[in-house]
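Section 5.1 Outputs to date
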Amino acid sequence: MMPARTKILFRCDGSQQIGLGHVVRSCALAMMLGEKFECSFFIRDPSPALSRYIKEAGFALTSLPGTVIEEEAAAWAEHLEGDEILVLDGYAFNTRYQQLLKTKGNKIVCIDDIHAYKFVADIVINHAPGVDESMYSLSEGGKLFTGPQFALIRKSFLQQALNGKKKGTDDTIFVCLGGADPSNTTLSVIQNIYTRAQHLTRNITVNLVLGSAYKYEDTLALQETGMVQLNIFRNLSAELLIEVMQRCSIAICSASTICFEYAAVSTGTIFLCKTADNQAEFYTHMLQNKFAEDFFSGFYPEDGSFSRQDQHKFADLLDGKQRQRILDIFEELVR
């Protein structure tokens, strides 16, 4: 008889209000681990679309009621056996929450990008570039893994990185500001593209990808300039998203997982928008190292050339070997 696979329980939340970033990267991690571990999700009041996203990825989902966060941890701990690995991705899962879940000896992995409290977790992963590791406070024996070499992106993108990246057609632009974009930065980006394209003598194509929790689509019914063709895509599979990305030599995206996914499949130029406070370190490091440019201050198509930077340096960090590195971390936890 085959030995039972170790269970990994993922605790994360996502909504139109807070975005889908925690769920997207946790689901990507579960996809990396699913062949070796039994993965399932615990999410507070998931929307039908979010529930469908998790279940279509092949994972069981338990819906949690809204409650005081420490009460939630205490109640959850009572049902643990002690041999499960718990993955926490969210800013509410603070030191006390982790301590309550440690009462039966469970291993804990935290996915983090704000280092706002001490971690009693066994492992902390922050896949942003340029992390100042001295900002983290870990318990004795805790380990920290940082940088794009541990990027939590979907297997299809990692496989494409191994197969070879492509650079799309000049003057074809990819735009995606995440799964929810609660502040509707998407609208500002599209308006800026239209404004800055008014004096062009050539046509440009904008491939806009909207996430399942984006709620402002009616605001995008704008008067287009004759130089811009806007194509809107929604709820694309990973495979179709890769296809759209690889048509584009330019990406305008948030300083988040979507940036990693574009760099895994393309060597095109990246323009970033900071759409949430937790993206600050990622955004700053990308600009300081000339891996990307700021969209609102650096995107000027009228100069005749979009692709002014060589993005290979950042794209090379997304080498497709992230899954094996992550597997090594988790397999070491259960030895």
